[in-house]
Amino acid sequence: MKKVIRSFGYAFKGIGYAFKTQLNFRIHSVATLIAAAMGFWLRISTAEWLWIILCIAIVLLTELLNTAIETLTDLVSPQYNEKAGHVKDVSAAAVVVSAVFALIVGMMIFLPKLCLLFCHAA
């Protein structure tokens, strides 16, 4: 049981490292809070919550993996290396793909509800 508890400690240490050192992870964390607040405010359905939670998980997961890949790449290739640059670029591209997906899903869920709220009020 101690090993399991210790492994969670390492995981939270990794999240803390990403939060402290990665601006984009902090930005995605704030976006997570905004999406959750909007979900509660707009009373989205269970199915919509599942999509929002999936998007949050995918974006944070890709950001964490990107951080790990960039850190490892810097360790094994401290000097400039074109292939190391490609590794980091592709890793960052994965984050962009997931973030664009999340943005599209968020727009599909939140924009109609916001329009109903504000367009009919005008």
TrEMBL record:
Its main location: membrane. InterPro entries: DAGK, DAGK_sf, UDPK. The chain crosses the membrane at residues 23-43, 49-69, 90-111. It comes from the Bacteria. GO terms for molecular function: kinase activity. It is found in: Cell membrane. It is a multi-pass membrane protein. CDD domains: UDPK_IM_like (cd14265). Belongs to the bacterial diacylglycerol kinase family. This is Diacylglycerol kinase family protein. It comes from Mucilaginibacter gynuensis.
